[in-house]
Specification:
- By secondary structure, the protein is an all-alpha fold.
- It has helices at residues 2-8, 12-18, 24-29, 31-36, 42-49, 51-65, 74-90, 96-107, 119-158, 163-169, 179-185.
- α5 (42-49) crosses α6 (51-65) and α6 packs parallel to α8.
- The longest helix has 40 residues, at 119-158.
Length: 193
């Protein structure tokens, strides 16, 4: 998946365009995709493009929460960048889709971050609230996926037949053990019982 992804997003500018703050409304409406669809982790981005690219992406996202541009206040931007470097190092296993969801929720006011850039509040919101939300939402989505697969299997099994019925239908010896029993006993096809 990472190889396909890097073929699609060959340059960091492709990454910036496709995963920018302009996509946050979409992510908020499609949080299941943010969690369940393949997007690379911050570590993957660092590995493919260099650590600075992941740090820059997080910095831009943090600044976008308060509609700050890097060239309008370099001191605030540098503060955000220093925080982003630590954040990426500590949270590199999170997917970029999940991070977009977090930043979009910050921007939407979900975590009450105030009116000024405050990296401490962002960090606390991530640690104290988003990680818990993520755990609960992922568990729900994974349970739904499991239930969907279980229902499909259950539907497919409706038309299944038992081993005894299979033996009768194929005129086999009634004492023939099922393949699962043979496997459990360690028997090969030609072995005797």
């Amino acid at each position: 998946n990472l190889q396909q992804w890097t073929e699609r997003y060959q340059t960091p500018s492709n990454l910036d365009t496709s995963f920018s703050d302009s996509k946050w409304p979409y992510v908020l409406k499609n949080k299941r995709k943010a969690y369940m669809s393949y997007t690379p982790t911050l570590f993957d981005i660092s590995s493919v493009y260099g650590e600075d690219i992941a740090v820059d992406w997080v910095t831009k996202s943090v600044c976008a929460i308060w509609f700050l541009k890097p060239d309008t206040n370099t001191i605030i931007y540098q503060q955000a960048r220093r925080w982003a470097a630590s954040f990426v190092a500590a949270n590199s296993h999170y997917k970029i889709g999940e991070m977009m969801l977090f930043f979009a929720r910050c921007n939407a006011g979900r975590y009450n971050l105030g009116y000024n850039l405050d990296v401490t509040r962002i960090g606390l919101a991530f640690e104290d609230v988003f990680k818990r939300e993520r755990h609960e939402e992922l568990a729900r989505y994974e349970n739904e996926e499991h239930e969907k697969k279980r229902n499909i299997l259950k539907e497919e099994m409706k038309n299944g037949i038992s081993w005894d019925e299979y033996v009768r239908m194929n005129g086999m010896d009634a004492n023939t053990p099922s393949p699962l029993i043979r496997l459990a006993k360690g028997l090969k096809k030609d072995d005797e019982d």
